[in-house]
What does this fold into?
Amino acid sequence: MQKVVGVREDGHIGEQTLAAVRKYSGGISTLIRDYCDDRMRFLRSLTNPSTGFPVNGRGWTIRVTGKDPKGSGRTSPGRHRRRPPATRRTAVIPAWARF
It folds into this structure.
């Protein structure tokens, strides 16, 4: 984010970074869009055929943009596939044990 708002990249969100965020032209929604664009540029630069964008690009794109490049699935940021809800186990009390 520091790169996008134009402050020294030191990895710490301090007063200078926060001031730059507050002054960012276009507001917070533009900052988020620009940050995501910068993140996607970085991810696309990872070209290792075993661990880079060629094999992980679809998942990374879904996580950053919320859109599946293949056009299937959900269209919101975050986890692409939801785990099924945990099944709830209820205790079964045998008839002879009921009072």
In short: The chain has a mean pLDDT of 85. The CA atoms of residues 1 and 35 lie 6 Å apart.
